[in-house]
Every structure is written in C-alpha cells, then in structure tokens.
Amino acid sequence: MMENALKGLQYFALQGAVDSIAPFGLGHINDSFLVQAEGKSYLLQRLNTSVFKTPQVIEGNLRALLAHAPELFAKHLRGTGGNYHEFDGEHWWRLQEFVPNSYSPNELQPNELREVSTGFGCFTAQFGSQPLEKYTESIPHFHDLHLRLRQLQAALEANAAGRLESVLAEVGQVQQFNWIAARFDKLVDEGLPLRICHNDAKAGNCLLSKPDSRFLKVVDLDTVGPGYALFDLGDMLRSMLFNVPENRENLESLSFSKERFHAIVNPFVEACSGVLKPIEIESLPFGGLYMTYIMAVRFLTDYLNGDIYYKVSHEKENLSRARNQLTILELMASSMA
Fold first, then answer.
1. What are phi and psi of 26, to 5 degrees?
2. Which residues, 6 or more positions from 301, have their beta carbon under 8 angstroms from its beta carbon?
3. Helix (H, G, I), strand (E, B) or coil at 112
4. If you count Cβ atoms within 10 Å of the first and of the last residue's Cβ in the chain, which end, N or C, has fewer?
5. What CATH code would you report for 103-335?
6. Does residue 220 contact residue 27 with C-beta atoms inside 8 Å?
7. Residue 282: its pLDDT value, please?
8. Higher confidence at residue 247 or residue 134?
9. Which residues form the Aminoglycoside phosphotransferase domain (predicted)?
C-alpha cells in the first residue's frame, strides 16, 4: 500500500523530500494517506474506481467547485499533467493541502452540530445559483430510492452470500417504510427543485477549527452534483442526531433530542434560507427519514451481496450498520410524525 502511495505521489511536484507517509482516516470508500514533506502536511487520496467509475467526471466537478468558491474547500494541488487527478497506469490519485489546526468532530457537542450544519448550509447557499449543467452525477442515481429498493430485491432473489435467512426481520422492517418513496415522489411532483448538493453531508466531511470549533472547510467532494436540499440536511440528521457510531447495534438507550434536532436544522436554514424555496424548507426534516431509510437499504443490500461495496472490519458489520439505521429510522418516524 505504501509503495503504491509513493508512486502516486510522484505525479505531484512537491517541494523538498517526503519525510513520512501513513494511512489516514476511517473512510468507507477511498484510501487516504497523510504526507509530511518539508514541514508541510498533505492529504493524498487514491480514488476507488470500483465505486467512482468515471474519474473524469469527478475532475470536472472539482474544477467547477474550486473555480466558483475556493474558500469553502481545502487547496487542491494540480499534478504534473495539469489535472487534480492523475493516473499512474493503475490508480487515480489526488493531493490537497492538509488544513492546519483543523479536525472532523466525533463526539458532536451541540456547538459542533451547529457549526457542521452551518458549513453545509454555506455550501448550499454558495452553489444555489450554479447551473446544474456544470456538474454531473459521479455515481448515477446515487440517492434514487426506487433504484436502491430494486437493488435490494435483486440481492434478496440472488442471495449470493447465503445470508438471506439471517435478515428476514430486517427485510420486514424495510418493507414497513416503503411509504417514504411515495412521499418523496409527491414532493418532486409538487415542485421540489434540483440544486447542487454535497450528497454526503456528515460531520466527517466538514472541518472545524481546533481552537474554537468554528466551521472551516467542506471536504470529500466526490459525490457533489445535482440533488435535493433534503439530501444534505437529511444526511446530517441521519448521522449526527443520535451521536452513535454507524456500526453500533445496541441502541436501546437512545432517545430523540429536540435540542440536537434544532441544532442541526436551524443553522442550515439560517445559512441558506435565501436560496431555498418554501417547499424545500418544509421538507428538510423529512430528509432525515429519506436518507436514513436509503442507507439502511444500501447496507442491507451490501450485506446480502457479500460486502462488495463498503469496507468492513468483520463479517457482520454491514448488517450492524443496517440494524443501526433501521433503529434510528423508527425513532425518527415516531418522534417527527
């Protein structure tokens, strides 16, 4: 792995010798490395082309993002070929400056919830007037619930990993929430507008300042593209409202916190209300149900398929993630009805 990273780094003209390079972060998809060179820190990433099959699309989206609002993002370095993504014959790589005195929040105190929400709200506000045609979905139909439900059905029928009998209860839970797809369709029919979204809005994709926890940068931009505002707000509710690891199953002690709910929703609305239409603002809480449901479906599908999409540390991790999301979904649905 380190040998590959060093090879990828050669495509970026860093000043001075490389002092160290080491794996960094806990991302599900791409491989990341912290690079130290001549007293400066960089983040080197290898794009997972099993997931992101068209690196050229991600390159085009990144160029548009950095041209429009560079202050929102970490500085990316162009490679020796003049692009932000460089190909070494086997892998695609990119390099960005490591933002000093920054961190991605983990425990998520109320002030951190507000700052993360403000950050993604600022993103929505900045790109509210950007033409949709400047951006392309890096993963087509990424948040298409109907597609994800069809994929689950195909996984159930194939039972490729022989795990169907162990997830019948979870399949039943999924079926109980089919109404979410119909409600979303109704919102679209009523005029819910497409806009440029991050499409993976969670605390790990937002950098805060170490001294005072202020919002600094939005990161991990591979999924940026056309979407709906409720996708980003919903992803924050899904991943931040209950403050538990995504793979934790024992959630009996969880309860819905209005304080945390408002600490996520209100700053987002305040930051981007100038670009959002009334139907978007009204539908934002529903985004929590939509995004939690779609992730439960995706985790369960990957478990049935034999863990071919998400990285796992043990055989049942995707099942634990699916159970986690289904529990959170039930808590949301009962508290937001």
1. -125, 30
2. 148, 151, 152, 155
3. helix
4. C
5. 3.90.1200.10
6. yes
7. 97
8. 134
9. 21-239
Measured between alpha carbons, how far is 73 from 55 in angstroms, rounded to an integer? 19
For residue 28, what pLDDT is reported? 64
Per CATH, 2-98 and 103-335 having the same topology is answered no
What digits encode the pLDDT tens for the residues 293-307?
999 999 999 999 999
Say which CATH topology domain 2-98 has: Phosphorylase Kinase; domain 1 (3.30.200)
Packing angle between helix 168-176 and helix 278-305, nearest 10 degrees? 160
What was the pLDDT predicted at 1? 62
Residue boundaries of the structural domains of the chain: 2-98, 103-335
Please report the pLDDT score of residue 206 as a whole number. Answer: 97
Whole-angstrom Cα distance, residue 119 to residue 205? 10
Q: Read off the amino acid at residue 190.
A: E
- In this structure, of 177-186, 257-266, 305-314, the range with the lowest mean pLDDT score is 305-314
Please measure the distance between the N-terminal and C-terminal CA atoms of the chain and give it in whole angstroms: 48
| CA 292/CA 92 separation, integer angstroms | 31
Residue range 108-115: mean pLDDT, rounded: 96
Q: In terms of DSSP H, where are the helices of the chain?
A: 2-9, 55-68, 110-126, 145-158, 168-176, 179-189, 229-240, 258-272, 278-305, 317-335
> Can you give the length of the chain in residues?
337
Q: Is the pTM of this model over 0.85?
A: yes
3-state secondary structure of 28: coil
Which structure tokens are listed for 43? 């983040």
> pLDDT tens, 281-292?
999 999 999 999
Lowest-confidence pick of 90-94, 105-109, 130-134, 320-324: 105-109
DSSP per residue over 168-222, as a string?
HHHHHHHHHTTHHHHHHHHHHHTTPPPEEE-S--SGGGEEEETTT--EEEE---T
